[in-house]
Specification:
It contains 3 helices and 2 strands; from the N terminus they run H-E-E-H-H. The chain is mainly α. It is globular.
């Protein structure tokens, strides 16, 4: 099964690269298609979730929920 996982990861990486180059506002994250913001926005969101997950799991959950909405 690891071989299938590697193929899926490669597929997602190539699709995400195409989406970025074509200016398409979507990305595949963990097998789910999600909206994509600018690189700066995406970096900020990842940092916010990472930093709030330890001490403030509710805040991290709220950030994820806001993004999903």
């Amino acid at each position: 099964m690891e071989h299938d996982s590697e193929k899926a990861d490669q597929f997602a990486s190539e699709i995400n690269e195409y989406f970025r180059e074509a200016g398409i506002g979507w990305q595949i994250i963990n097998g789910v298609i999600e909206t994509r913001g600018s690189d700066a926005f995406e970096s900020s969101v990842r940092t916010a979730v990472k930093e709030s997950s330890g001490e403030h799991p509710t805040a991290a959950s709220e950030i994820r929920e806001a993004i999903a909405d």
